[in-house]
Automatic annotation (TrEMBL):
Organism domain of life: Bacteria
Cited Gene3D superfamilies: 3.40.50.20, ATP-grasp fold, A domain, ATP-grasp fold, B domain
Main location: cytoplasm
Catalysed reactions, semicolon-separated: 2 D-alanine + ATP = D-alanyl-D-alanine + ADP + phosphate + H(+)
Pfam families named among the record's database cross-references: Dala_Dala_lig_C (PF07478), Dala_Dala_lig_N (PF01820)
Name the record gives this protein: D-alanine--D-alanine ligase
Gene: ddl
Cofactor(s) essential for the protein: Mg(2+); Mn(2+)
Family, as annotated: Belongs to the D-alanine--D-alanine ligase family.
Keywords of the record: ATP-binding, Cell shape, Cell wall biogenesis/degradation, Cytoplasm, Ligase, Magnesium, Manganese, Metal-binding, Nucleotide-binding, Peptidoglycan synthesis
Physiological role: Cell wall formation.
Lineage of source species: Bacteria, Bacillati, Actinomycetota, Actinomycetes, Micrococcales
Bilayer-crossing regions: none
Subcellular location: Cytoplasm
Amino acid sequence: MSTTKTKTRVALVYGGRSSEHAVSCATAAGVLAAIDKDRFEVVPIGIAKDGRWVLGGGDLAALALAPGHVPEVDGDGDVRMPLSTRDRSVVDVAAGGAAAALGEVDVVFPVLHGPFGEDGTIQGMLELADIPYVGCGVLSSATMMDKHYMKGVLSSHRLPIGPFVTLTDRQWATDPEAAIRAASELRFPLFVKPARAGSSVGISRVERPEDLRAAIEVAREHDPKVVIEQGIVGREIECGVLQGRGHEPPRTSLLGEIVVETGHTFYDFEAKYLAENDVVLSCPADLPAGDADRIRAMAAEAFEAAGCEGLARVDFFYTENGEIILNEINTMPGFTPHSMYPQMWLATGMSYPELITELVDLALERRVGLR
């Protein structure tokens, strides 16, 4: 007597309204190509830049991010996710009003980067419907997306962070000179960043006080709230963290190091996603064993301090005198096959397809609602 094995249905949600739309598309292409198709049936759902949810296709080349090609979600239809706990059925409403049932999904894998996806918004929607999903919950997603609040959480747990100031929209509108004076008290060079963006979008390195105003305006194109950080001279070290199974502690990967060799003053968007030979991603990073152990322990501590679940990448600076400074936590780090997070886990012994499976399994194990 034969039995039919039912595959787990995974809604892969990508694109989104943030400035990291193209990066999310590239991540989706990587996941679609690598996911275990014997275990999982994928329902690809793209979110257009105007917020429309549309049924995605299987053209992986169209989703790839490459020189001369910036992917973007487009298409007709109106995919609607369940908003109650009664069922998990997904429906696609065509332009003429006819509804096509796409069936129930068991879990959602949101590979969204930046605001309106990585910041707790979609996580809250899924919590309303009791749908399991990959990655961090509402609170940790929201606080780690906002660099101002992230630094507050980390410092409250006595984790080492660098000097910074925050500039709100009201402060810039009412007294921009005071804001520039406050930032100028930090030691140059400074890094001016949108408070709630990632992938190095909108970030400027500032060497002189007279260049601050222009850098702030560039950051404000992506977020009215801006964080200005004092530059730290040190190596950029990263650690991948995975939630432990059950009540086990978080797991940490071998450490990775980013070395920007030519053409960039820092690890900017082009260096991350478009440059072929300008950046070297080294894993495992060449560090004294004791310091490597300290960084991995600190990454796990930061993961728990932030209330993270599923996955996160924790970024550090490592100075020439061995000082370790925590830079930030990314709750949905770059996740293409060539991104640092999967590469660190590959070096640790977990392949990209295995990592995808592990994340989906963690999501299915975790109870929904309050936990």
